[in-house]
Amino acid sequence: MTLHRRDIIDILRDENSLLKTRNSQLGTRLARMQLAFRALNQIDDLTDRIDEETDLKGLFQQLLQLVLHASDTEHGSMLLLDERTDELQFVEVVGDTRERLLNYRIDRNSGIVGQCLRLNRPLLVENVRRSVDWSPEVDQLIGFDTLSVLCAPLRDGERQLGVLEVVNRQGERPFDKNDLAVLRVAAHYVSLALVRAEQLAQT
After folding, report:
1. Predicted TM-score of the model (pTM)
2. Which domains does the chain have, with CATH numbers?
3. Which element (helix H / strand E) includes 107?
4. Distance linking the first and last C-alpha atoms of the chain
5. pLDDT tens digits, 154-185
């Protein structure tokens, strides 16, 4: 097949356009990972500075906001396990549903966060409507539309503390394995903060 000069120009233009798109995507991913690392570093700093005078409520709100910042989303929750009632309680919420959801309780086995706690591992659900574990209970209560979910267990060794949950990533790109890895590390630091706060309360 004979390639004419015009054909070669078109091919080179298409390849150049493809390279620009790929470079832009790589640049976006790199920027997001840098953002995530900065947020995780801030979470680590906050955890190290916990003492008897720390405002724990304010601390957990800061931690959750940093987790959402790292995950590029605006909605998320910290649920802690009440071992007396076997319920998960929304102890901190970021997003426009905060007032309706704060302190609400669900059964420890309810929905995707219940599965996360039960399996004791992070979960990524790209489309909740396709998950057999999805429960619409909370959405119906607060008038929200959950599309996708990332969650990770909070734990102290084998002891279960609760679950970190973020929902509905901003933009067109869905949550991916990198987001899940970031949330897993964030959940580790938040767990350390919870244990440190618990120790201070006991002393």
Report:
1. 0.77
2. 24-202 (3.30.450.40)
3. strand 105-107
4. 82
5. 999 889 999 999 998 877 677 888 888 888 98
